Amino acid sequence: MSGEAFDWHEFLGRWQKEWVPRDDVDEEEDEDGGQTAGPSRPGADEAVIGAAEERLGRRLPASYREFLAVSDGWHVDQTAGVYQLGGAADIDWFRDPYDMTPLYEENLGDNPRKEDVLLAGMWRRALRLETDSDMSNALLDPGDTDEDGEWALYVYQGWGGELPVRYPSFRAYMEAMYRGFHSDRAQRSDFVNATTRVQDAHVADAYLLALRGRYEVALSLLEEARSFGRPRSAVLLNQLRHLLAPRSPRDYGRLVDDPRYLAEILPVEAMTPARGEWRLGGDDHWLGMMAARGAARQTAATVLGALRDGTHHYAPPGPWGRAVAEARETARWGATDAAWRALREALPQWETPGPSLLAPIGLLADPVLGPLVTPERGREILATPRAGQTGPVPEPVPDLDPPGLAWLTETTANRQPLDGYRCVWVEGIDPADLPALIGEEGAALSGPTDPRRASWQAPKPHEREGVELWEDRPVVAVGRTAEGWAFAFDGHSHHHLHKLFLSPAQAASSAGRAVVVWRDPRHSSPGERSAAFHLSVAEQGEELYAFTVRGTEIRCSGAIPDALDPARLFRPDDTELDCELRALEALHTELGLSLPRFALTHGSLHTFTTRSWTRAPREGEGFAYVTLGRPRH
Questions:
Q1: Helix, strand, coil % (nearest 5) of the chain?
Q2: Pick from 106, 293, 472, 478: CA 20 to 30 A from residue 137's CA?
C-alpha cells in the first residue's frame, strides 16, 4: 500500500451505487421488511471503534479502521465463502476453535519458509471479521504485518481443503472482493455503470495497443479488465500470455463458435489432446467440450487428427499466408532461422479477422512452424506492429542455430551431450531423394514429426517381421544444411560401432560426394571401453578414405587429407570430448559440414528408416542381441 491515501467514501459509495444482486440470489429483506438497498451500513463513530479496540486490547490497522468509520460492516456477497463482514461490535479474536495450529506446525519441517511460519501461527492470534459465511472465515492477522502496519487478511474456506488465500491488507481484500462483485455480474445486460464503461474502454485501448506492438501496456490493461470479468478481456489476454509462454495451454472459451476465428483457434485448442496431454476423459470429452462451445464435432475431430499425424497446415489468407507457406517449406528441411526471418519480415502484413484476435495464434499449432515460436520470438511477434497499425519495430531476436557441428558436444535439454549420433551427408541432391539412396525397401519420408519421438517409438529388430537381429536400421531425420548438403541424422543411437559396421557412404555417393560420421554412445561407468568415432567419405560409389578411432587405436584407409588426419585430431593426452570437438570443427572447416541444432533438438522434420548400418555376420563371426525388461509377475 506504501502509505498512500485511500478514499473509502468514494470506493464504498461507488460499490453501493453499482449494487445489483447476483442472478442466483434473491434480494434479502432488511429489518423493516423491505428489500436491502445494498451492502453498506452507516459508519461507526470514533467512540465505537475505540471501544472495540479497548475490548480487543489492540489498535486496529489503518485501512480497517477507516473502513469501519465509513461503513460499520459490509455485505461481501462472495459466490462461495464469506457473505457478511460484521461491524466494530461484532468482531472478536478467532482463538483457533478447530485446533488448526498443530496441523500446520507439524508440516513446517526443519527449515520452514517465513510465510509458512506466519500461517501456522495465524490461527491463534487472528481477528475474526465475518458474521455470515459458508463454513469460511475472514481472519486479520496482527502477526503478519507490512511496513505500513497493515495486517494481512486470510480467507479460509473450511470445506475446500486448501490453504487460506492471503491478502496483504484489509484494503487489498476489499478491492479484490469488489472486482469479484463485478465479475459475478459481468454477463448481466443491465449491469452497466461507470466502472464497466471504464474497463470496456481499457479493453478497446489494449486491443489497439497490442496491434501497435505495445503489448506490455496492453497486458496490464487486460489483466485489470479480466479481474472485472469484462467481455473479450480473457480471450485477448490469453493470446498475449500464450505467445509469451508458447508451450502453456490456454482456454479460448467460445471463440471457436465464430467462423472468423475457427481456423486460428480450434487447432490451438487441439494441441493439448494431440500431444497426449489431455487428462479429462480422453478425446470424447474434449470433442464434447468443443461442441458445447460451438465447434462442429466432426470439424474438431478432423483438426485433432491432422495435428496428430502432422498434416495440419496453418494457412491464413493474403500476403501473410504466402509468407507462412514459404517459411514452412524452408523450415521443413531444417532451416528454421531462415524461416523465422521470413515470418518476421511478413508479420506487419498479418490481418486480424475480427476484434477478438490480436496476433497470429494459429501459427503455434502448425507442426513445422509452431516449434519455432520460442518465448523470445513470441515477444517479438507481440512487439511488431501489425494489422495496419504503426509503431517502433523491435530488435530482431538472434538466430538460434550455431554454425558447424561443435554444438553436438554441448549439453542439451537433459544436461548431457547427445549420447551417440550418426549422420550421412550427400552433396548436391534434394533431401527427398535420400530414402531412395539409403532407405530400407519401400522407405518414404514421413510427415514432419519430432525426430526424437520418431526414434524412441521405432520398433526394435526383434519386433519387426523380416528384420534380422543383427540389423541396425535407424530412424533418421532429414534436412538440408546451410551449405546445401542433404543430411540424414540419428541423434539417439544406442548402438555401438563394431566389426560388423557397414558404412552407408558408398550407397549414398552414387549421386555425388557423401560423408558418414558416427559417434559411439558414451559410457558413464569407469573402466568401460572408449567410445568410437568414425568418418568415411565416398564419391560416385567408391570410398575415398575412412578412419575409425577408439581410444588409442586408429584404423585408416585411403588418402586422408592432412586436415582430417586422425592422429592430429585425436591426441592421446587430450580428453575424448576435446578430441571430438577438434574433429567436428575440422569437418566443418575442411568439408563444409553442419547440422541445424534447433530443428534436430526442438523442431519437426521428415524422417525415414535406413538400410542396416551393420552387415550379416560371416562364418565364424559371433553376434548377440540382448534385450532387457522387467520380469512378469
A1: 40, 15, 45
A2: 106
**Gap between the Cα atoms of 148 and 170, Å rounded:** 12
Output the furthest CA–CA distance in the chain (Å, rounded): 107
CA dihedral 210, 215, 219, 220 (to 10 degrees): -110
DSSP class of residue 397 equals: P
CB 494, CB 527: distance < 8 Å: no
pLDDT in tens, 7-58: 999 999 999 999 988 776 655 544 433 335 688 899 999 999 999 999 999 9
Count the Cβ atoms, other than its own, within 10 Å of residue 542. 11
Q: How many CA atoms lie within 13 A of 302 on its CB side?
A: 8
- Kindly write down the DSSP assignment for every residue of 289-322, as one continuous string: HHHHTT--HHHHHHHHHHHHHT------SHHHHH
Residue 533 CA to residue 551 CA, distance in Å, equals: 9
Closest CA to 308 of 263, 275, 265: 275
Tell me the C-alpha distance between 341 and 531, whole Å: 39
For residue 440, with 0-12 CB atoms within 10 Å meaning exposed, 13-18 middle and 19 or more buried, which class applies? middle
Identify which of 30, 49, 35, 125 has the alpha carbon closest to the alpha carbon of residue 87: 49
> Which cell numbers hold the place of 25?
440470489
The residue that leads in pLDDT, 393 or 531, is 393
How are beta strands 136-145 and 127-128 bridged, if at all? Answer: antiparallel
124's grid cell? 491463534
C-alpha–C-alpha distance, residues 65 and 48, integer Å:
11
| The three cell numbers locating residue 125 | 492470534
**Tally of CA atoms within 13 A in the half-sphere of 575 that contains its CB:** 5
d(CA 438, CA 431): 12
Strands across the sheet containing 92-93? 92-93, 127-128, 136-145, 151-157, 165-167
Residue with grid cell 524452408, as numbered in its chain: 330
CA-wise closest residue to 117 among 102, 125, 105: 105
Q: Are 180 and 79 in contact (CB under 8 A)?
A: yes
pLDDT in tens, 482-535: 999 999 999 876 667 777 889 999 999 998 899 999 998 865 444 556 789 999
Distance CA(270)–CA(286), nearest Å, equals 8
Task: Specify the amino acid at residue 153.
Answer: L
For residues 153 and 138, is the Cβ–Cβ distance under 8 A? Answer: yes
